[in-house]
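Question:
When you can, review this sequence-structure pair and walk me through the tokens.
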Amino acid sequence: MNHPTADIAAVLDPQTQDAPAVLVCHIGGTDSAAEIVAGILDDLEAAALNLFPAWLPGGADIDGRTLLDVAAVRVLAKRLAATSRHFGPFVAALAEATVRGTRLDPSRYARETRAAGLARVLATGYRRSHTVLVVTAPPDLPVDDQHVLAAACEWLAVQGRIGIAVATSAIPAIDRFTTVTVPPGARTGTVAHGESSSHSPEPVRLRYPALAGRPHPGSAAEKKLDAALQDCDWARGGRWNTIYQPDPLRAPICVDLMWPDARCVVEVDGDDHRMPAKYAADRRRDVRLQLDGYAVLRFTNEQVLDDVSAVVAAIEGYVRGRRRETGSTRSATEGSTR
């Protein structure tokens, strides 16, 4: 890409419905291409583990580490693989590692398998068709280091089947990649998913969206709340527009935003929720969720659009409190740093 890192945000914002899941990776220094690849794969795995259970249908109700839980997630992973492009053994092993609170043995799968598998898992978690990794580095890398970085990116793109975009400020001596130029005057701002527009702080190497899924495309309030939450570390683990159905004999409930670990649901209500029938239906949904141990917070569209900061602060305080009350052992920032 023929533009500084800051302009990546202008290119990606707003994202279309068919856009990929975008993660930003900053390489603070270069060793060998193999070591760069290994570090990136470790970071992608941490992101995937933190995103669980968004990428595993049915996994939201499994939160223990018993042998039964392990067996259950492996069955769910095999079901997922049977109806998708996921490689069954890999996604099952990743699901098991998540439940056990461990990491995958890097030697268990070839790097190609690991890279492609993680890219698919991350795309699934964010309800996208594929994953793109935006790679940046200091603009003053020696030429030899630029070639090392370029070789690592080529391996990830060709062998790992991950979409790669490299800021040319990181590899100005490399001319064998297709170049995309951003028109002058492009809007700049916060780099996609949390990187600073002036530099990428160490030791963080990989940043990714806090929330899985997508806000409703027709709801300006949900989109605004999503934008405000995506860079909040405490919000990790939240999922947009997900189906809650703890029992197959019960009717499913589609909730606007859920944090399974905190057992907290957030609803963003339009004017139609004030009508008697809709209001009564909302109360029935709330009671069902509350009986299952979930807290339900409701905000109107106007509250979100007029003062999103206050809404975010209210959600943060409640989610953090619920995590303490429920004794959640899963850190909201787990996997965000190396």
